[in-house]
Every structure is written in C-alpha cells, then in structure tokens.
From TrEMBL:
Bilayer-crossing regions: none
Domain EAL: 23-282
Species assigned in the record: Streptomyces boluensis
Name recorded for this polypeptide: EAL domain-containing protein
Covered range of the whole protein: 435 to 718 of 718
Domain of life: Bacteria
Amino acid sequence: AKSAGGNRFELADPEVDARTITRHGLTTALPAALARGEFFIEYQPLVHLADGSVSGAEALVRWTHPQHGVLGPDRFIPLAEHTGLIVPLGRWVLEEAVRQAHEWQQRHADAGPLRINVNLSPVQLHHPHLVADTVEVLERVGLEPGALCLEVTESALIGADDDLLKPLRRLAEMGVDIALDDFGTGYSNLANLRRLPVSVLKLDRSFTQGMQRYPVDPVDLKIVEGVVSLAHSLDLSVTVEGVETGAQAEQLRDLGCDTAQGWYYARPGPPERLHTLAMVDATG
Ligand code: C2E
Ligand code: CA
Ligand code: CA
Ligand code: CA
C-alpha cells in the first residue's frame, strides 16, 4: 500500500506527467509520421526591402499529429535531432522545398528567380552524405544550385573546425548560398565571419524587436548599422527576420538591410500564396 501511495504521489503532478508522456510519445511517433506523410511545409516570403518585391521564401516544417493537431517545429525538431530522424526528415524537407521552388520557377518565369531557403540542423551538417544528397536532389528536380540557400545557425558554426566547414564550402563553390541564421545570438567573433563560407547574414528577431519600441534606442540602431556595414564590407547580404510593422521595415531599409521576412509582409503559409504574392509584384 505504501509503494502504491508513493507511485500515486509521483503521478500527482499531471502537468509534468503529461509533458513527459508527450515528449516520449512524440519521439516514438516521429518515424511513422514521416512514413505516413504527416509533415508539411509552410512558406514565408522574403522581400527585397528596396522595392518590396518577393525574392523567395523560407521553408518551415510542421507536423499534423493525429491526436495533438498541428505542431510547430520547436516541438519536434529537437526530438528528431536527438534520435537522428532529423536526417531523413531534413532530406524530405529539402526535396519538397526544392520541388516547390522549381514549380514556382516553371509556372512563373516572369516573376524573376524565386529562391528557396531551407534550414539545416547541425546534425545534418555532421552527416557524411550532406553534399551528395543535396546535389542529388538538385539534379533530379532540375533546380539550379543558385536558387537554393541553406540556413545554418550561428551557434552551429561557432568554433567549427575545417572538417565541419568543408561540406559547406563545397556547396558554396557549387553556387548554393549559405546563410548564417539567428545571427547575433551566438556571440561569435565578428572577425571569424571571414573564414565561414557564408554569403547571407540573417539578423535574429531580437534585433528587430528592439525597433518596435518607440522611440527606438539609438544604441540599437547603431548596433544594426554596424553589423550591416561590416556584413557589406565582407560582401554578405543582410536579411532581417521578425519584421512586424511598416515602421520597422522602413527603418531597416534605411539602415541598409537587403531583404526582410516577417508578419508585416506575410505569415508562413501554403505554397500557392507565394505564387499570388510574386504575381502581384510581376504585374506591378
Ligand atoms: P527560424 O529559422 O529562425 O525561423 C523563423 C521563425 O520565426 C519561424 O518560426 C517563423 O514562423 C517565425 N516568424 C516569422 N516572422 C515572424 C514575425 O514577424 N514575428 C514573430 N514573432 N515570428 C516570426 P517556426 O516556423 O515556428 O520555426 C521555428 C524554428 O524551427 C525555425 O526558426 C527553425 O530553427 C526551426 N525549423 C523550422 N523548419 C525547420 C526545418 O525544416 N529543419 C530544421 N532543422 N529546423 C527547422
Ligand atoms: Ca531559418
Ligand atoms: Ca532565424
Ligand atoms: Ca530563430
């Protein structure tokens, strides 16, 4: 009776318990979810700040869980990284997104080249087949490498040695763009940027958040200004994430940022929506 009571006491925190079950349940459900096609991708447009035209989109994965409904990537990507399922899942995302980009280009040559951004987990970065898999997908689908941008977080590359950078260098040499995602959160040595094979810097949302306050802290402005001028001097283009207001967009454009992404332009959505947005630009 005493041990039963003990057990019951352990289960008495329903929140902790539910969380544990869900985490474990989600982890074990991941492989079947991939096999059953429960994942889907939403696309969020990237916009040229100079004229507001769509330059491409970022692919963001979601999971339609049979019991829990649609789950965001923050709920399951860490679990998939832990079990290694991120490798086949990431390959699926890449192929799906590359196919979608190819379709946009086919149906829509007049809208200008639409580029596709795909997130790469550090686990994928360590996988020996990354370059071969990427080349294979691009060739099979028929998308030129220059239309693909792989996003790697700043924290994944901090202290990266040459072995880790080699596959990224090879992809960059082929024409694939590499973006440094969540830049500004990793405390990386700015001088270190020179040795990374990246061509795009994606300023983390924390930068743009500071610009929602009014008046904007002049120190925040100076920081963005400094990062942009450093990036440009290294021939990197600058994308800002999390742009939620027109005032932010204007300010970031004036500070010299190149492209932007955020709810002000569009939330992540189905691929057809990007089509419509790009059409609008093409027709003026
Ligand atoms: P991220 O790469 O930094 O992606 C941007 C996140 O910011 C997305 O969240 C997006 O929906 C959200 N966002 C966009 N605009 C705004 C805005 O104006 N305001 C605010 N508050 N948020 C905005 P999401 O889709 O939940 O993705 C979260 C993270 O999950 C991503 O962060 C990325 O690190 C990861 N992720 C998503 N898809 C994949 C994938 O296919 N593979 C891997 N490895 N990671 C992925
Ligand atoms: Ca990203
Ligand atoms: Ca980001
Ligand atoms: Ca982020």
